[in-house]
Design brief:
There is one protein chain. The longest helix is centred in the N-terminal third of the chain and has 56 residues. The strands form two sheets. The chain has a three-stranded antiparallel beta sheet. Strands 3-4 form a two-stranded antiparallel sheet. Among the domains are: about 60 residues; about 60 residues, N-terminal domain of TfIIb (Single Sheet), CATH 2.20.25. It is extended, with a radius of gyration of 36 Å. About 5% of the residues are buried. It has four helices and five strands. With about 190 residues, the chain is mainly alpha-helical. The structure holds zinc ion. Zinc ion binds next to loops. Keywords: Membrane, Transmembrane, Transmembrane helix.
């Protein structure tokens, strides 16, 4: 027999019951039903995941809405002697069980990456940077206080609500009588 040649005889599938050719319809139905079954399983799974997701969302929403209340309750609880001892025990357990160590390790690994981001976000909330509209000089200052241009002296940043409400005591007279308060555009980084 030459290499590479092989004869394959086609064997018709016979039904063991009546000796006839096995009906692929039976197979098909079985396949279909198993597919349908798995699809139903999958659908149920998705449904469950969706349900869990929905519950989790509403739970976290609830939690964030009630967070101040929880925090108050927690601090109230921690003020009681029982709460203080519970907190102490918890901290001792935390320290002794190695979780403190784990968190510390985690922090040393994550902080070098997270810190610049965090600092950037914080800085963005506290620092304002822009260009003086009068003389085009760049300025940097704290958001919570008025910023003056260093070269022309114009006020280039005024904190919100500071104009009339916060500056009411003494400062108001000086700020409202400032003739050089101007509207400026600033850059949000
Ligand atoms: Zn200027």
């Amino acid at each position: 027999m030459a290499q590479g040649q092989r004869r394959v005889r086609a064997v018709p599938l016979r039904c063991p019951k009546d000796g006839g050719v096995a009906r692929p319809a039976v197979l098909g139905v079985a396949g279909l039903s198993s597919i349908a079954q798995s699809a139903a399983d999958r659908a149920r799974e998705i449904d469950r995941e969706f349900e869990i997701g929905r519950r989790w969302r509403s739970l976290s929403l609830d939690f964030s809405r009630n967070a101040p209340r929880y925090r108050k309750q927690l601090s109230d609880f921690l003020d009681t002697p029982l709460g203080r001892s519970v907190a102490t025990i918890f901290f001792l357990w935390f320290a002794l069980s190695g979780w403190l160590f784990r968190v510390f390790i985690f922090a040393t690994w994550v902080l070098p990456f997270a810190a610049p981001l965090l600092i950037g976000t914080i800085a963005n909330n506290f620092v304002i940077e822009g260009e003086c509209p009068a003389c085009r000089k760049r300025f940097v200052g704290y958001r919570n206080q008025a910023v003056r241009c260093s070269s022309c002296g114009n006020i280039v940043w005024q904190p919100k609500g500071d104009f009339f409400s916060k500056g009411g005591k003494g400062r108001n007279s000086s700020t409202s009588s400032q003739p050089d308060v101007i509207d400026v555009e600033f850059e949000e980084k």
